[in-house]
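REQUEST FORM: STRUCTURE PREDICTION
Request ID: SP-0412
Submitted by: Lab K.M.
Chain count: 1
Length (residues): 276
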Amino acid sequence: MANNDTRPIGIFDSGVGGLSVLREIRALLPDETLIYCADSGHAPYGDKPQQVIRERSLELAEFLVRHDVKALVIACNTATAAAGRALRERWPSLPVIGMEPAVKPATAATRSGTVGVLATVGTLSSAQFAALLDNFGHDVRVVTQPGVGLVEAVERGELSADGTRHMLEAHLKPLLAAGADVIVLGCTHYVFLRELVESIVGPQVKVIDTGAAVARQLARKLDEKGHRAPAGEAKPVRFWCSGNPGSVAHAIDVLWGEHIWPDALPRSQVITPHTR
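STATUS: Completed
RESULT:
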């Protein structure tokens, strides 16, 4: 099939952390039209019940599907674990690309035999993460650490603040003490703290994430269906958000590097779903 599909690609996250994935998608697929939804009004997802995260994800995906997206990217490890299957069941013909912590490449990269995973509580407690450990964690020791408070720091654009560094030092200390020589950043928000993480752990520790791998998987799915956009000028990204647009605009300015005021999501995508 010819690559002439000009429909957009939809990407969503619990907030602005998924901009780290958006950056990789834009770099690999510059001709594509991208729509990004930041659910910052409900961030972080990591401490919320799975059903709430699933309902939020379905609402955001529904909004993107109404924009006739040709693929959907869940730029959030926690939302992928809670809702990836539900989204694929709801839209079986739509490519849905999710995230998972980079346990597999980390186990291949470790020399000490110990891998550290920094992720949200929701990701670490998920069945998906348990399956990753079952599949790839047999020959190494995997030590986990919830990054409490880090998502909120990134949402505020506080990438180099003293408070953020102190939180990171506290979270990384047990991983380093356990002998981890590879640290997995298991949350898209944490990728924006990579330089700070690397300055704390030192050059002897490898830091990895999965943003680039997700962009490559998206490209493969588009190629399989012949759904690439025709070559041309890079398209602007359309940003939507829940929560305070001014706060999200500040975070986009810091993380994305452009002065953009996001559109407010319609009310049906803003209200907090009820747990049943």
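NOTES: Strands lie at 9-13, 34-38, 71-74, 96-97, 114-119, 141-146, 182-185, 206-208, 237-241, 263-264.
Reviewed by: T.R.
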